[in-house]
Write the structure tokens for this entry.
Amino acid sequence: MRNLFKLVSFGLLWVSLTGISLHCSAQTTDDSTQTTQQVPVAVTAATPVQTPIVKVKKKHVALSARDSMRQVMLKRDALIRSFKHSDGSLNDLLGKIESYTNDYTDINNDLNQGFDTVDISDRLPTLERRMVLMKKTIETSNTMGYLITIRDMIDHVSHQTKEWQNQLDSSSDQLDNWRQKISDFRNDTTFKTVPADSALRAKTSLQIIQLRKKWKLLDSLSQKEVIQIGILENRVSALSILLIDLNTQIDSKIHQFTLNALNNEYGFIWDMHKTNSSARLDTALAHTYTLNSKLYKYFLTSKTNYYGHVACIILFICFFTWIYTSKRKLARIKDDHKAVFAQTLYIIKHPYATTILVVALLGPYFYDHPALVFTQTMLIIMTGMLGILIKSVWPKPLYELWRVLFVLVILFSISSLMILTTNTERVLLIVLSAIAIYGAYKLLFYIKRAPDDYPPYLSIILKIFIAINALSILLNIAGRFSLAKIGASMAVFNLCLGLGFYLLVQILMESLFLQLEANKRADNTSIASYIDFKLVQKKFKGVLIKVTALLWFVAFAKNLTIDDYLYDTVFDFLNDSHKFNSTAFTFKSILVFILVIWLSGMLARVISYFYDFAGQQQTKLTPQAKKTRSSILLIRLTIFIIGFFVAVNAAGIQWSEVTIVIGALGVGIGFGLQNLVNNLVSGIILAFEKPIQVGDVVEVSGKTGTITEIGIRSSKIDCGNGSELIVPNGDLISQHVVNWTLTNNNRQVELTIGVAYGSDVAKIDNILKDIINNHQEIMKTPAPAVLLNDFGENSINFKIFFWTEDIGKWAGLKSRVMSQVYSRFAKEGIEIAQPKQDIQIHFPVNPDSENPGTLTLPTKNPPEKDQ
């Protein structure tokens, strides 16, 4: 009985100790809800020990909230330290639970957001259907132009599929990463660790169970995403393979077309009915309309062309707004705006037509390989606007040629869009070429009679036009219909484009003229007031002609379907690496270097132009203005230096190679460029030291003039008589230079006045002082002075000294003072001395003469004849 009592006592003691420890550990957890749920389970078998636990809680209620939180935190830290020191595997388990919980949260959020494959899912079926249609079109088409157009479209789709493939690959990689984490969670052996503490074991078990359910759900969701991404990847890959096959098929047909074009592919014109290669006209037109309508719809709705559409719309809005606002502003601020409007020929009379022409000409260049049906539509629109603009401006024979060209452009455009060849088309091509020859020959007759009334080089262009059409007729007759079609259409299209680009230059120059006139102000405070339109026209028009010539050549290459070949050739030429000794270079780097240096020089010239024009508009330069204009040299040097560094970096040139070039220049300087470098360095010294500035009046080498420009190598001096003196900067540094305006613009004027002997000296002195003291243009400080200078041979000489504020007016002031002196002297009866000279003439006397006072003039008799 005693032993039984001891056993029960020890059991009750163990249960009570266990309940206390579990209660403390439950209080150290962060989740109060879980604590209240676990404690009763742990102590249900020890009901008698509940009383001391309740007393402990009541004891802690008396503590403040701050002390209670601090005590709980200390107990929690002590428990964690005990776990860390006692059980390392438990610490790993808790860390894994936390880590996998965070990973689950991140992955679950990403999966809930999903992958952005809506665009691919929506557009992929449409592209698949279109490529099937393209495959059928390639099999039936026998025109080179359409094969190239379809190849360009396939290239666009290929770029799109590559972007999709990269996007799907990225999503697939992310899914693989998630699947790897799911696999790591399944195979993690850390979850097999069992904590020694039963309460902690129950809690961790519950967390592990919940975590496994969550990761199982992630596994299911990720599997669905993998299947969806995999299906899209397979479809995109299949489309890419189809595109590769179509490209191969097109290249093969183009190669075969090139081989057949030089042969008698369609038979002679009189045997064309014997060949089976032509189709019926209605069938060809129906197929052409169906295909082109689908291609046009695809071109307009394709997202790859949205940027081009937006660019065309922006160009239309901006150009029309430019013309309209300039016209409105000019009409508002100028009374004689009609005289300005009369100087324009196109933009004022036809603002909408000029805007449409500009968009139609430049619009196709905003697209990467636009559809042929789009380019032909823009060409027809441009040709129509061309006729509207030139009807009342250009000579009537040229307008008559436009009528012929407009009809030819429409018919040749339809012919270019045909996907099947017909015998009717062959005959029609001969007729159209003959009409083109007749119209061009008729215009040549009028050009010979009045060549100045027509655009330059038009006669040469028309002769080439006639020759190409004549050759087209011969090729068509000989069965080379493809070459004949390309030649005739190319001649008509490029002649219209040439006239359009010629008119584009005129329109842009008129728009610029209108802009400048609308922004000019009477006080010359606007930027437009500093721009001389004639100079801008001379410079800018040349640049526009070169740019439009380049655009015309690009269109010419497109019409000949050799633009890709030229682009690849030029690209390879520019990017192929070459070696000079041990230095590698590309022509692209050289071109970029030259282009950047050229742009730097152009920018420097533009800035110099504005400074020079501003200086020409100012009659008097202030010291600050002179200093500012003299700083143009520093600005130009800075622009050139920055341009050089940018050019080197943009061209990818190594600085080690630049040092070699600089070293070579050093050798050249040592042998023969000392004078050039001396002038360059002298220019830099002048820029920083400023012993002379723009606007200064200087005297160099016996020449006096005004500094108009201080350049890098030399400076310009306006001598005032229409000549300009070019002085090397080295001479301005090494020689004696008299600067009349270094400190200020004042100048002393000296006059010498001579009066006759016997004049009243005191009176003359008073008169002269009265004149100079009361003259408004003479400075009071320094005070003017009158001095009796010397006694000459014939006069008493006075000297007058006075100062003028503006050195540019000293000659006029001197003249006015002398006029006043002369008037006062004449009024006062004072004689201005005149030089006197005594001339004595001695006549010889003839002693043999009867009258010795008679003058005997010498005579010269002719020599006697030789005896």
